[in-house]
């Protein structure tokens, strides 16, 4: 699936997709996504390669325990699989990635927060009925883990057949049982409507 997504991104303005890629600056437009929220249009994609910034938990390594690098790699793989399932509108693959419990939450752009796997699954079922193809180019990705909890913050640059490119800021939270795979327990996505002007602090 990762190779398929790399090939898709390569065909788009020679962008490179290794989990992240660079974008140009954008401007505010009114464009519907999910339920008609206002998002930022991406001015253009470049061929520059960005780097996944990983905050790795430091600690003493024990015999048989996975390394921090291996944890981050597994988290990145799970995160990319989430967007791969979204692009392919693959409900079975999406279901496999989530923890099936009452504690999971999902906030799509413009939606109220959904709680419990039943509501989350129903939302993806409804979204996948739409025949509009979406492609996700991920930028500004940062992954971190602490024990059996991990989180990834990322900008979703979304391309579609019918709408201009848009940007959504997302936070994905994963957890696992010891020795098990990483499962999503929370996805929160908010529309990016402007670039903040951040001055240098003294």
TrEMBL record:
Domain SnoaL-like: 75-192
Classification via InterPro entries: NTF2-like_dom_sf (IPR032710), SnoaL-like (IPR037401)
A Pfam family per the record: SnoaL_3
PANTHER family: NUCLEAR TRANSPORT FACTOR 2 (NTF2) FAMILY PROTEIN
Name this polypeptide is given: SnoaL-like domain-containing protein
Gene source species: Candidatus Aeolococcus gillhamiae
């Amino acid at each position: 699936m990762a190779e398929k997504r790399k090939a898709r991104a390569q065909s788009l303005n020679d962008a490179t997709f290794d989990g992240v890629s660079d974008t140009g600056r954008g401007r505010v437009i009114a464009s519907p996504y999910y339920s008609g929220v206002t998002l930022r249009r991406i001015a253009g994609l470049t061929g520059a390669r960005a780097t996944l910034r990983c905050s790795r938990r430091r600690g003493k390594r024990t015999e048989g325990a996975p390394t921090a690098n291996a944890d981050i790699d597994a988290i990145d793989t799970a995160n990319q699989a989430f967007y791969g399932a979204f692009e392919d509108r693959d409900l079975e693959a999406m279901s496999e990635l989530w923890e099936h419990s009452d504690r999971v939450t999902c906030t799509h752009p413009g939606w109220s927060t959904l709680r419990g796997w039943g509501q989350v699954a129903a939302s993806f079922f409804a979204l996948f009925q739409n025949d509009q193809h979406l492609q996700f180019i991920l930028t500004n990705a940062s992954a971190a883990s602490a024990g059996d909890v991990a989180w990834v913050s990322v900008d979703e640059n979304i391309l579609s057949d019918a709408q201009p490119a848009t940007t959504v800021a997302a936070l994905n939270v994963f957890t696992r049982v010891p020795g098990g795979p990483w499962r999503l327990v929370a996805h929160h996505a908010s529309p990016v409507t402007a670039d903040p002007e951040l001055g240098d602090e003294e």
